[in-house]
Amino acid sequence: MELPNQSGARFNQLKFGARINLKTTHFALVVLLITAVFCAAQNAPKPATSDANTAQQPAAGAGQAPEQTPPPAKPSAGQPAQPADQTQSQSQDKDSQASGTSKDRLFFALPNFLTVENAGKIPPLTAGQKFKVVARGSFDPIQIVWYAALSGVSQAENSEPGYGQGAEGYGKRYGAYAADGTIENFFVGAILPSVLRQDPRYFQSGHGSFFNRTEYAVSRIFVTRSDSGHSQFNYSEIVGAALASAISTYSYHPHPGYHPQPGVNVPYISSDRTLKNTASVWGSQVGYDTITLVVKEFWPDIRRKLKKQPH
Description:
Blueprint: E1 10-13, E2 19-21, H1 24-42, H2 50-55, H3 84-99, E3 105-106, E4 110-111, E5 115-116, H4 127-138, H5 142-157, H6 166-196, E6 202-203, H7 210-219, E7 223-225, E8 231-233, H8 235-250, H9 275-307
Parallel strand pairs: 5-6
Antiparallel strand pairs: 1-2, 3-4, 7-8
Helix pairs in contact: 1-9, 4-6, 5-6, 6-8, 7-9, 8-9
């Protein structure tokens, strides 16, 4: 699942004139996430050396021969025991390489099924697998809570006033958020990757400096793998987000021009069904997806730190 793509307050301007719409509250959340990622990357625990592990082994007792072989169930002096969490993480890595997808969740909640960690050469996903994993993330129960929270923020800010207020306005906003997220996920992660034979997964780098890894994550918006393993322009993301934005803008999401109170002398609210607004929504979707990739790159470091796992 990707972070939400709908927008409210105008935040930044693209070179071609469209604006990227990011809610102020969402931008504050992004700043906090990036700060947490940076701290985790800088303070990530270093792997213990074999010398240090050997030094931590208890000395042989007086009645024990120095060359006595330890029981098979226990690790040797130069091979430290692996914590249960690390063993579980390695098992998940093997499962991911076997199935081609992940069971991981960002911040232990949001679906992160298309991110692969420590992946070598793994087979491409079939079209059926692409649709299956996207559906699993898009209709995950946590999405109900996620879209409900975003709809509440949108209603509190009265973004897109054509939806109105009250239960009816909240319901319309909730439906729009859910539809936007689901349609964009399927276009970017399943439909176009199947047609163009591109790989929708994010292959975590996991090494290098904070800035190198951030640069790599951002570049994945424009560069992706083909099913054959070659680097290609990421048409699935760029074109898929554009198609989802057009569907959103020209169908259920925007409203034509209207007077909020007929017969009352109030300003006329113009229609949102314009090419400029479509570009604005597209820019917001690509922007949120870029932030999501950066979070995905550093989430394993944060997870290990929270669970106190070594590398």
